[in-house]
Design goal:
Helices cover 28% and strands 40% of the residues. It is built from three helices and nine strands; from the N terminus they run βββαββαβββαβ. A five-stranded mixed beta sheet has the order 3-2-1-4-9, covered by helices on one side. A four-stranded antiparallel beta sheet has the order 5-8-6-7. Helix 1 (47-65) packs across helix 3.
Length: 178
């Protein structure tokens, strides 16, 4: 089988169902879709069922794509996902807001998160709002002079243990998680 980069595979994992998709990026088509629903009394992902689901579907996807599945995009829907909202405020900031300034703030937030939530992996950092001198903006504004800036940031993270469990199942099929 030849490795073709015109396809992407997506796996959706939740407490009550699994879905897998093969997308043709060149022609914008969904070439393969399977869904498996199950009931569980636990609020936990049934990893044994996930393994069985993958066993039934990975070979079929590889057959349709004509190549091995080496990488997969995993979307996790689970109550163990941690969402945090926080604000960062800088007073007496008289310069224009630059990319370097934003990068430094976000790096500080990321480091603070890692220090306090080391059992989680930070997946997304989203700036929801820029508040500049008391005026709220949904996107960064150019050339605004300011004295005070506040960023409202949303952090989305997944427990390291859950990531490890899913990665271990996918390793059986020689698949890396994107």
């Amino acid at each position: 089988m030849n490795e073709v980069i015109d396809f992407e595979t997506y796996l959706v994992v939740s407490n009550d169902k699994f879905e897998i998709y093969l997308l043709d990026l060149k022609n914008f088509k969904n070439l393969y879709k399977k869904e498996f629903k199950y009931q569980s009394d636990l609020e936990k992902i049934d990893l044994n069922l996930l393994d069985e689901f993958l066993e039934k579907n990975i070979f079929s996807i590889e057959k349709v794509a004509g190549s091995f599945v080496n990488k997969i995009n995993v979307i996790i829907q689970n109550k163990t996902i941690l969402n945090l909202d926080l604000s960062v405020k800088k007073k007496n900031y008289s310069q224009n807001i630059s990319d370097v300034f934003l990068k430094n703030i976000l790096t500080d937030v990321k480091d603070l998160f890692k220090e306090n939530y080391n059992q989680y992996k930070l997946i997304h950092m989203i700036i929801d709002k820029y508040i500049i001198d008391g005026v709220s903006y949904s996107s960064l504004q150019d050339q605004i002079s300011n004295d005070e800036i506040c960023l409202e940031i949303k952090l989305i993270s997944i427990p390291n243990l859950l990531i490890l469990e899913i990665e271990n199942i996918l390793k059986k099929y020689q698949i890396q998680v994107n």
